[in-house]
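Researcher: Batch entry, complex prediction.
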Amino acid sequence: MQVTRGRLLRDVGLIAGFDLRESLRTRRALVLVLLYLLIAASASGIYVRIVSELQEGVAALPDVSGDPEAAAAMAMVQDQGYHLVLLFFAGGDAELANHLATYPAMVLIFAWISLAFLPWFIALTSYDLIAGDLHLRTIRYAALRTSRGAYVLGKLLGQAALIAGVTGLGMLPVVVIGALYLPGFDIVGTLLALLTTWPITVLCALGFLGVVALASQLCKGPGAARAVAVGLLLAVWIFSVLPEPMTWLALLSPWHWKFGLFHPAIGQRLLAIGACLGLCAGYTALGYLRFRRRDL
Amino acid sequence: MTRELAVDLRAVHKRFGSVHALRGAELKVPRGSIFALIGPNGAGKTTLFGLCCGFLRADAGTVEILGGAPDSLRLKGRLGALPQDAMLGRDITIREHLVFLARLQGMALAQAQSEAMRVLELVDLAELAERRAGALSHGQVKRVGVAQAFLGEPELILLDEPTAGLDPRHAHDLRAMIRGRRGAQTIVVSSHNLQELEAICDEAAFMEKGQTIEAGAIETLTARDAEIHVQLAPGPEPIELLRARVPALALTWDPATRTLRLRFQPGPERVAEDVIAEVLRELLAAGARISALGKGRSLEQRYLDQGPVA
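Model: Structure tokens for the complex:
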């Protein structure tokens, strides 16, 4: 039993490594990197623009530096406005909103935008995770030598590693653009905050990757897999915004859990981590029920 | 005496939607043999290979490979195959592909690397080891496919049309390589080139419309021990004389090809060589001129003689 498990893990590692290497040599990784860098650069650019606009607005206001009370009132208004925005994004959770306020705003904007786009990037780059190999019958070379379960897990892990790498690279434009265009930009603080949001982004991405892995195992052709992946992602997004009495369906959506990953309460955070990992495993396993019995 | 079987398929059925690809197919491949699977396009050969490799699941019947179900973990490193039309990742070098597959078979990195180079040398591709699979010609890709089937010298190797698309020299080399493994490994080959199969195989099975219609040793199928043919050059045709002088032979004469076909019951007292000597003596005495002589009939002729299955 232990020998089998050891062999399975070895196979999973080998397949993941091979898949990652193959992705890095093809346009898949390049496309994902370029898209993600574009998003990171855009998010940073948006932030820089907002800051510039605000600075211009503040400059146009009457000078209150000589009036401490007026200056304090203005700062309070600005803080409250920012807090209201955070409260809105935190779904009314004041504790979470307060915690989000501890992140540099630029990091939050980047995390927010990247989490909004990432599911669709994953759908566009990982849809052929299994379906592509089925279509070209490449899978037959590996299927002779390992189990189908190890194959799926290996491919999933390979794509997860790719996403982790790409989202890690995405932090670079944020730091570079911030340093270039924002006076007094805190490079170290921003970098540290980005490093704390990185695993959050990856964990959330795993939930979406599970949905895409389900689509890829259901279909034999890459075209169909891409369409089904986008369709399923749309479906789970709809799950996350359904009204009563169907709100329970939101539990099946990675979108529902993404803010839990930022939550300061460790219990909430662990729950969200478990949910994202569980959704990844669950959706992948659902696809595997079909894949394990299908003709290759 | 029961022979140990490498492949044992019993009453296997497989459907793809409305297409009944295998209809109770039977196949028994003895261990250590070089076995030919013969049949027209659509006969079910590739489906049968797919079942043996575990790529496809039988709808009914029993599939036993090396003494058990075609389970990839049980057969890891014991079964090699050249699947038809399977592609390699275009952007990975062929050496990397082979090292990956060898490692999946359980080899350590160093062993996998040397094994990859060994099998590439077998198919004369060692010089292109660092070339991306996407930059190879069709024939070279086929040879890489053959190479990966021989990784780790598995007990059983299934080759689905291995010489299709190969140039004559590499096809010849591959035949020689397969022939050289007789007794050491079990190799099942499907091909439309029956001359090729006849030259390298010990046994064969004919398939048609999803069924195995006949199987046996090549010697038996081609009646090498029970039939001779003689082609006469233009000149005397002493057919009736021969019929009268050697009545134990069943004789047919095809005037179009000027070929005499003589069938006999082989036994200790009557082997093909004795019959050849007797027939030649009579023909030469009657003034006939011999232009060709052979034992049995070709596998191709045997296949064509069968006619279509109803």
